[in-house]
Design a protein that fits this description.
mainly alpha; globular; two-stranded antiparallel sheet; about 150 residues
Length: about 150
């Protein structure tokens, strides 16, 4: 049973990172708009993050898929996901109406409200749990270097 959970955590998180990273990297302007909507960073950092973040997501997805340094990939994933949760909570607390841009798109969204923020944070909390599980008990089968 524990191996099944480890399998789901590793490969599920790999799929999440590969999907979200690819969508954002293919649409850097949407990614920039989503990051800017959080109103947390100066403009000089937004362009860099709009390319660096999806690139990091793709690297983490590949690390998890191929089984390279799984514990480190889990820890890095957990840190990034905790940052995402804090960013969404910050936007909500400051009364911003945004779409998180987690899987492309993003930016200002007049329809955003408590339900959408809670759903996003809940989903990211599940991904965070998967990352923590992978760091704690990585699924080493099919791994190049667990």
């Amino acid at each position: 049973m524990l191996n099944l959970i480890s399998f789901i955590a590793r490969f599920g998180l790999a799929a999440v990172w590969l999907w979200s990273g690819a969508v954002k990297l293919l649409n850097p302007l949407d990614s920039r708009q989503a990051i800017a909507a959080y109103e947390l960073l100066p403009d000089s950092l937004i362009d860099l993050l709009a390319v660096a973040l999806p690139s990091m997501e793709l690297v983490l997805g590949l690390m998890l898929l191929l089984g390279v340094f799984l514990r480190w990939a889990g820890v890095a994933s957990a840190i990034i996901l905790a940052g995402f949760i804090l960013g969404v909570a910050s936007a909500w607390a400051r009364g911003l109406s945004i779409d998180c841009g987690c899987f492309g798109g993003g930016g200002y969204d007049a329809d955003a409200g408590p339900a959408s923020y809670l759903a996003t944070m809940g989903r990211d909390a599940l991904f965070l749990a998967m990352a923590a599980w992978t760091a704690w008990r990585p699924f080493g089968r099919f791994a190049i270097r667990p």
